[in-house]
Amino acid sequence: MDITVYEDKMEKSVSNLKEEYASIRAGRANPRILDKIQVDYYGTPSSLQSVANVSVPEARMIQIQPWEASLIKDIEKAILSSDIGLTPANDGKVIRLVFPELTEDRRKELVKDVKKKGEATKVAIRNIRRDANDAVKKEAKANEISEDEQKQAEDKIQKLTDKFIKVVDQEIEAKSDEVMTV
Questions:
Q1: Could you write out the DSSP letters of every residue in 102-165?
Q2: Could you tell me the pLDDT band of residue 9, with boundaries at 50, 70 and 90?
Q3: Over the Cα atoms of the chain, what is R_g?
Q4: pTM
């Protein structure tokens, strides 16, 4: 029984969680929160990074300098319609996004969100475990593997699951600490 397929799926679940965590802002400017923003560039939706220079000149500010000045309004519109919760300020040449200091209540809300996303990832990993165990049971039922091999495969799958659940717990802990750090 080859369980690398299920390991890859668990791996993808964890990397998806890391991507989601990258978009949660923790009071510090992180250009990754702009990753999902699409700008209308001559009728083609393009990523913000492909039409502008994105930099972090200060700890709580992101500066966006479009390659073409005509794009400022489109970029501003894209940021406003996104759900990042920041209002862009533009001086005609660059757009600045200033991150307000997070309140204690907002930090606690973010930590709840972090934990909820972590739990959802754990559920996904457990579902992958269930699928893997079902596949092993089918093989055993069809007499393709012996009972011992079935037991070994189920043990491997459980160890794999435990390993990834532990990784998710570490990610939750790290992101929660980051959010709560003032």
A1: PPHHHHHHHHHHHHHHHHHHHHHHHHHHHHHHHHHHHHHHTTSS-HHHHHHHHHHHHHHHHHHH
A2: very high
A3: 22
A4: 0.69
Residues 6+ apart with CB under 8 A from 34: 48, 49, 54, 62, 64, 79, 84
Q: HSE of 70 in the Cβ direction (CA atoms, 13 Å)? A: 3
Torsion of the alpha carbons at 12, 119, 80 and 29, rounded to the nearest 10: -80
**Whole-number pLDDT of residue 1:** 67
Please give the pLDDT value at position 27.
64
Segment 47-64, tens digit of pLDDT: 888 888 888 888 778 888
46: left (phi over 0), alpha (psi -120 to 50) or beta: beta
**Amino acid symbol at 118:** G
Q: 136 to each of 27, 83, 91, 161, how far by Cα in Å?
A: 46, 43, 62, 15
